[in-house]
TrEMBL record:
Taxon lineage: Eukaryota, Metazoa, Chordata, Craniata, Vertebrata
PROSITE patterns linked to this entry: EF_HAND_1, EF_HAND_2
SUPFAM superfamilies: EF-hand
Coiled-coil residue spans: none
Protein name (record): EF-hand domain-containing protein
Localization in the cell: Mitochondrion inner membrane; Mitochondrion intermembrane space
Biological process terms in GO annotation: calcium import into the mitochondrion; mitochondrial calcium ion homeostasis
Gene3D superfamilies: EF-hand
Source organism per UniProt: Oryzias javanicus
Start and end residues of each EF-hand domain: 161-196, 344-379
Gene Ontology cellular-component annotations: mitochondrial intermembrane space; uniplex complex
Keywords: Calcium, Membrane, Metal-binding, Mitochondrion, Mitochondrion inner membrane, Repeat, Transit peptide
GO MF assignments: calcium ion binding
Amino acid sequence: MSSWGRLAAALRGAVRGNRALRTAALRGAVGPAVVGSVLGTGLVCYHRCRVSQRPVSAVFAAEEQEAPTPQLSPRKMRFIQFASVVYDQEPYMTPRDFLYSIMLEKVDRKLKKRLLTAQEVNSMLRAASAAQPGTDLFRTWGDNGLISYTEYLFLLTILTKPRTGFRIAFQMLDVDGNEQVDKKEFLKLKKIIGSSKARVATAETTEDGEAVSTSLQAYFFGRKGENKLKYQEFHRFMEDLQAEVQEMEFLQFSKGMDTMRREDFAEWLLHYTNEEDNEIYWENMRKKIPAGQSITFDEFKAFCLFSNNLEDFVFSMKMVTGANRPVGMAQFRRAVKIATGHELSESVLDTVFKLFDMDGDNCLSHKEFMGVMTDRVLRGLKVQPQSGISGYWKCVKRETLTGAKEALGNGWCPI
Ligand SMILES: [Ca+2]
Ligand SMILES: [Ca+2]
């Protein structure tokens, strides 16, 4: 196995390792403090809603009491932590909650979850069915919308997938292969990535009716669920969502300005990495990166596109170097171009190289770069994945690789 082949293996190991670490860290952080804490509020509420089916008012009154240990995945705990509304005893995220869950490590909730009436939900669904596509869709919806847990999982996967996976994702949704997805097919995906049998049973009873029950369903299929979703619309939705989150992250780190300084970009790069390790990177930055240079939104977007294509990058890197050695900036640039079809700007490349080059040889080894990038890419996915969701994307990936293999012919070497 060549160096970059090992890198791919290491990358997979690192992702697993990081996930395990994160999961452990999350458990450590929330475990003792869960009851009576902000997160505990949601957990206790959710758990009791599900288990005892008691009225929500009684649940909220009982928030401070001890609760049995809930059997919830870390990702579900994260969903409940950020979800700010409850309808029919189920917690939901608003579109604003979803964006916050991507951008923020945790939410410091000062208010209780809002209990929605049927009338309020109807008005949200009406608004969602009339919404126009765009890169401000979720921000326009704000708190005026409902996102279910399974949709949250679905949206998270969209954020970190390369665009080559969009077509396959659509085809998997389009069960009967008629080039459009209807509401019934969309709900099947929800069952695929749903967390448990109990959850699926609930979904069936509440969602098999004619009407739509969440903002995404209303947006894709209309208020009565009668519309069909075409690939073009699906692709646009995925692109817009990626762009919307990128724009918000850019504005967060540029402090609302049109460009971000190179140190802001470095801060964004290191945002989701292990804090204990970061001081050495800041030291690198202080020593090597000149002040007064900035990065535009387009340069930032190109880097985001690249970070969603890391596996393709590893593959193209292997083709570019073909040997067991760290890579210089020129080779790195070329591999990025092959993997994404786009160039990274000089400022972005230079920042990446100077920040992550730990041994000062002006090259990046896989250890120097990929360890940090895998953390970076995981973003809101930093908890252990659902088996359903990873199974779905594993299938998407397998199909992508099969296509790549056909395209590359004999030159193919699996990573
Ligand atoms: Ca279909
Ligand atoms: Ca180096």
